[in-house]
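User: Could you go from structure to sequence for me? I need the amino acid at each position, not a summary. Structure tokens:
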């Protein structure tokens, strides 16, 4: 599948994915509005994913410490079935080959409310490493989150 990834600093492009009504309804915690979402392209890394169909999504990376990047995938709903898994593999290839060498681990926290997202993470090789208890608020309820991770070495072993 012809998937490519590129860094983007384009706020409008990033906002077009993150504030898409279906995505925003899922990712925004209570009382957040899309008009206040401003990507911080200096402190976070945004990687656009393109296919022959155009922009299909954006992966956001936040530096946690000198070795770890926290990752969040946002694939536009109309492209998930066709491209989500391929986009995850392409991002892992980018991480292994092109991310700064000091980063040796990718992590994600996924609310229990979204087992489909946990399943996606596991399908690209991330492993559940723990539970972050009572740490996410959505719809007036508090949820635990799965803490998932994959090391650079595990990425290359999984990519073959």
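Assistant: Here is the amino acid at each position, in order:
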């Amino acid at each position: 599948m012809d998937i490519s990834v590129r860094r983007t600093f384009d706020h409008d492009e990033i906002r077009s994915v993150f504030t898409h009504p279906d995505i925003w309804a899922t990712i925004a915690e209570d009382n957040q509005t899309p008009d206040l979402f401003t990507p911080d392209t200096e402190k976070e890394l945004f990687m656009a994913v393109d296919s022959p169909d155009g922009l299909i999504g954006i992966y956001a990376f936040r530096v946690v410490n000198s070795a770890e990047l926290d990752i969040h995938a946002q694939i536009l709903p109309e492209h998930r079935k066709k491209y989500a898994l391929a986009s995850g593999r392409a991002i892992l290839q980018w991480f292994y080959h092109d991310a700064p060498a000091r980063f040796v681990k990718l992590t994600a926290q996924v609310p229990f409310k979204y087992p489909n997202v946990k399943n996606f993470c596991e399908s690209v090789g991330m492993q559940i490493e723990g539970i972050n208890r009572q740490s996410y608020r959505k719809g007036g309820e508090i949820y635990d989150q799965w803490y998932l991770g994959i090391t650079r070495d595990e990425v290359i072993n999984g990519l073959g």
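One structural detail worth keeping in mind: The chain has five helices and seven strands.
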